[in-house]
């Protein structure tokens, strides 16, 4: 199963880029991974920004992908539950699992209805920059759990 991670805006902090590179590199050992970036909208009302950014995300999303949104209002899971979720997708022959991280104002309602699932990494608000590293680490952790490796204890 191919993994795709989509997000809005450029990664600005060097330490975030290093974290992305670290976990993306580790994760590619388990599955093909593609990371795609949608241009951030600026200078408009929040709803217009969400709409335009989600239109850009939609263009990066293959039709056969199962879309998972990252949102603080989504379902919370433990790392083992997240691993089980990913394993089920793989076992059900989902060709591609796409995770989307919205911009500073989140997702447009129209994009939310397109999603197959919405999950929260935390009830706390994280910057959309930090979520990139946390998500990649959790996907990597899930794969080590699935494979019975000692990373998660």
What report would you give on this structure?
The chain is an alpha/beta fold. It contains five helices and five strands. The protein starts with a strand and ends in a 7-residue tail after the last helix.
Low-confidence stretches: none
How are strands sequenced across the largest beta sheet? 2-1-4-3-5
Oligomerization status of the protein chains: single chain
The chain-level structural class is alpha/beta
User: Span between N and C termini?
Assistant: 25 Å
Strand content: 15-25%
Keywords:
alpha/beta; 153 residues; 23% strand; globular
Topology record:
Layout lengths: L1 E7 L5 H14 L5 E6 L7 H14 L5 E12 L2 H13 L4 E6 L7 H6 L2 E4 L7 H19 L7
Parallel strand pairs: 1-2, 1-4, 3-4, 3-5
Helix pairs in contact: 1-5, 3-5
Quick rundown:
The chain is an alpha/beta fold and 153 residues long. The protein contains five helices and five strands, in the order E-H-E-H-E-H-E-H-E-H.
């Amino acid at each position: 199963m191919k993994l795709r991670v989509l997000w809005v805006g450029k990664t600005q902090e060097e330490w975030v880029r290093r974290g992305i590179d670290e976990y993306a590199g580790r994760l590619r050992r388990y599955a093909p991974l593609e990371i795609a970036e949608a241009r951030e909208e600026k200078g408009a009302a929040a709803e217009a920004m969400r709409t335009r950014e989600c239109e850009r995300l939609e263009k990066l999303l293959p039709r056969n992908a199962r879309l998972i949104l990252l949102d603080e209002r989504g379902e919370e899971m433990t790392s083992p539950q997240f691993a089980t979720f990913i394993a089920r997708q793989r076992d059900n022959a989902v060709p591609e699992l796409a995770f989307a991280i919205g911009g500073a104002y989140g997702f447009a309602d129209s994009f939310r209805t397109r999603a197959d699932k919405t999950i929260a990494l935390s009830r706390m608000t994280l910057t959309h920059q930090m979520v990139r590293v946390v998500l990649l680490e959790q996907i990597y952790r899930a794969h080590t759990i699935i494979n019975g490796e000692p990373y998660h204890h």
